[in-house]
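Hi R.,

Here's the chain you asked about this morning:
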Amino acid sequence: MNQRHSAVDAVVEGGISPRALDGAFPRLDLPLALPFAPMEAKTVAGLPSGSGWQYEPKWDGFRCLAFRDANQLVLQSKAGQPLTRYFPELQSALLQLRSNRFVLDGEIVIIRDGQLSFDDLLLRIHPAQSRINKLSQQTPCTLLIFDLLVDADGKLLTDRPLRERRVRLESFYTQMGNSPLVRLSAATSKIAKARRWLAELTESGCDGVMAKAINEPYRSGERSMQKVKRIRSADCVIGGFRFASNSKVVGSLLLGLYDSDGLLHHVGFTSSFNQRQRAELVNVLKPFLGGQGFTGNAPGGPSRWSNERSGEWKRLESRLVCEVSYDHFAGGRFRHGTKFLRWRPEKRPESCTFEQVLGDNGHGQISKLLAA
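And the predicted structure, written out as tokens:
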């Protein structure tokens, strides 16, 4: 896993130190106690078909449950951690809605130039409130809502089927008052449209498509939804590698792409090898040791996302090309670790450019979806 992203997962989705997120949940007069486990999804190969499904874009942001009880507002992450202090503009927007009691399920995103910017979201997880406040003005977030768990009358809806909850969510949205920071996420029962989303919206930063059974209740903590990701591939130059921890076998290959000026930039890594392959890679890479490596952005040292000595890597001549599969590219790098597919000895290294991953099929489609 990408070290930088794994640390963010720890903050937003997993176990963390008490200092990473501060504050405790207040007691709210709602039929759901905090923290509350949201319904989750399992990854499947393809979209299910039939009349019993609702399809939604899988937004690439921070999963968020929003609880409001009068003048109290709490934002909770998927792992049950408080997020409220990191998004003051969203807190203010939700407190200004006409409804003063509700629980919403959604995704916090930042939209920049018609595309989702996960890197801007990462910057919000910061210890200094002054920094958070400044970013909230420079790059305000949006809460894309896709489920209503407690309505404006304080009634619990989790036992009701999705088809009913969706109707109530849409009614809630039309009555809540206009807020540019709280938007209704699109949904469709037409699989043809869902397949178009899967093909086009990933270029704008979406993570795939969700499928939800319309006759099912909200199953807290269960993986009862289905998600499909669009997996793509790219040819990359290997500009260097790292040894595995306390070992003389290869831990990961460092991937590079060329920009229009002919500079090779570090864009991620691949480490999908078994122990035998890791040992064999040492001999494969040895003849190319001592090259210039990356001429543009290079792998950095320790950061606030990682305490490991990530600056220790071996440079290689820019001659080896491999094909890797990936699910998302943003902020000049692969969002997660990629999967090694094959060597590409017939490919010229200089042909491995950013054009492979910076497609524009879905540019501007995010805004159209939100306006629907």
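The chain has two domains: 12-230, 232-356.

Let me know if you need anything else.
M.
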